[in-house]
Amino acid sequence: METNVKAVELKELWRRCKEEGDERARERLVVAYSPLVKYVAGRMAAGLPSHVDEGDLISYGLIGLIGSIERYDLDRDIKFETFAVSRIKGAIIDELRSLDWVPRSVRSKARDVEKTHSELENRLGRAPTEEEMAQKLGVSVDDFRNTLLEIANSSVLALDDLWTVADPDGGQVSLLDTIRDPHAVDPEEAIDTVELKDRLAEAIESLPDRERLVIALYYYETLTLREIGEVLGVTESRVSQLHTKAVLGMRSHLQNAA
């Protein structure tokens, strides 16, 4: 995700954009950081249905990039790339959700899976297996796995959503972006952030080993679903099933802990 613009030139573009309101400098910043949009769109496209065009995702993401440039504070102790990625992703997700292309039947199945996971986790004191989930839902294991794949192929559900909060403008921002200054952190905000991190860590720890590994490889090692499949010796669709079950399970775990 490197830009083709030298650091010195970038610094000058930022100065002109922020201090002088130079529209030309702003446009050049958009071009310089456009690889961020392609990167985010590419990763999101890998988990979406084939009829969703990556070019459309890029156009949605550009809106998020432009907004990031306008709202970025040069005095904040956070890299622009970190600040922008969550907003680019948020812009893409917002647009996809506004199109409402996910069938109601799939939404209903996702709710049923999440509710069932929550009930079983409360009763068993651990994350339920696929066999236990299938039995509770009254379907075969293969049918349950197909349901997971259907949800995965028709949603923008991702672990990243668990890390986002609403900002004053009605948008979605990463929790990382809520830290104003490392030397002047608001105590209440810091406590809330630490508590959420602890809850998320507990949710990850509650997952079965295989699902926990998928989460680690996808979100921390940034491997694609295909690459994870090669590591685990399974198909890409199987990895997608595991990822979907893991995220739905974590959502129900966080709701139970709330």
Explain this structure to me?
This protein has 258 residues and is mainly alpha-helical. The chain folds into two domains: 94 residues, RNA polymerase sigma factor, region 2, helix turn helix motif (Rna Polymerase Sigma Factor, Chain: A), CATH 1.10.1740; 124 residues, Winged helix-like DNA-binding domain superfamily/Winged helix DNA-binding domain (Arc Repressor Mutant, subunit A). It has twelve helices and two strands. A hairpin with a 5-residue loop joins strand 1 and strand 2. It is elongated. It starts with 6 loop residues before the first helix and ends with a helix. About 7% of the residues have low confidence.
Key phrases:
2 strands, Rna Polymerase Sigma Factor, Chain: A, 2 domains, 258 residues, Arc Repressor Mutant, subunit A, mainly alpha
Structural category is mainly alpha
Distance between the termini: 37 Å
What is the highest CATH level, the class of the largest domain?
Mainly Alpha
Largest sheet: 2 strands, antiparallel
Number of strands: 2
> What is the helix/strand order?
HHHHHHHHEEHHHH
**Gross geometry:** elongated
What is the fold-level CATH name, i.e. the topology of the largest domain? Arc Repressor Mutant, subunit A
Bin the helical content: 55-70%
- Architecture of the largest domain, CATH level 2? Orthogonal Bundle
- The percent range for strand residues is under 5%
